[in-house]
Amino acid sequence: MAEEEEMSDDSYEPELQFVLRLPPTQSEALKEDLSSGVDIDEKFSIEFEEDLRNATVKYDKWTLPARLYDLPTITESSKTLDDKIFYKTGDICQIMIAEEDDVTTEEGASSVKKDKHKKDKRYFHPHGLAPPLKNVRKQRHRKTFKQKNFDIPDTENEVRRLLEADADAYSFHYEIVDAGDENADPKGELEDDSFSYEETGLSDIFGDLNSSSDDTTDEVDNDNEDVRSSEEGPDDEADGDFENEYAQKLESIFEDQQDNPEEESKDKEEIVDIVESLQHLNEDRAAEQVGQLGENNGTDDSYLESAIATENLDQLLKEQTTEDEIALNEKLVELEETISSLRAKRRAQELEVENIENNVLKEKFESSIEQLKKDELEKRQEYDQIANMLQQGV
Q1: In angstroms, rounded to a whole number, what is the distance separating the alpha carbons of residues 288 and 294?
Q2: Which residue intervals make up region (Disordered) (predicted)?
Q3: Diameter of the chain by CA atoms?
């Protein structure tokens, strides 16, 4: 039980107001006297010693030793006359605790502990007035942790990072929310006012890539056929006439055998003669061709070697040309994908720039758009060069 007392003697008043805490028996008796209106000036007294910390409390027939402590908290005291309006009368920061047993006093200056304000720690009360404030001096009056550098997020940098991530993405979508819209769904379900870039087909951008190469191949084949027909000379036509004549004779012989089986022996002799004539004709044709080539190239052996080398070289050139065409076609496909990706990024950033109000961020996006345009133009020029090479037959 705690009671508040005002000191009438100025010479013994360490504070204007403090709390007096008595043992339960004396506290109940003092409470009854105060509530009944009995004059307690003759029954109650407090006598301080020279240090103004130790005192003797006398009440009625009891004499109690007491000590004055400093509270860790400050409590305001108020008075009222009508239970409606309260007037502050002081700040209570001390408590006097009276006990039935003698209060032990520590003697000797060496044993006295003082804080930085040169106050005796023996008179520091560890608790507050209420139970929740138990050990409040140790629990609440600790040193606070001071962090010099706080990681404060930079809103502008975070927005820039998000926009750059959207620009690098192949597709994205966003929602525009009106903060002042009262009809907005409380669950956060908004109408999808979004857009996304669909993958653009390569044929939509560059047209049919296979049509030009197919047409070119057909034209080359037709030219080769014309060259072959022009190289065939009159001698080949004459040899062809002899072959046709021998073929007609063989057909007539076979028909006669079917009509007259008796003349089969005579027909066999004619068939043998025709076959031998065809063999001689083929041998003469081969010798004539070899002789012509020998005249042009020096000797028959050198011609044969050069012919074999030319055939091998043509085959190697064809294989090399095929490999080059395959590599160039793969390069074209890669360039098509790169151009499509650059175009999608550029369009995405152009749409974002329209909604950006920050001038610094807007300039950065515009420079990025210009760089994307340059890259796209370079890739387009490289694509056109490779396409022309393929059309010309590498």
Answers
A1: 10
A2: 203-243
A3: 179
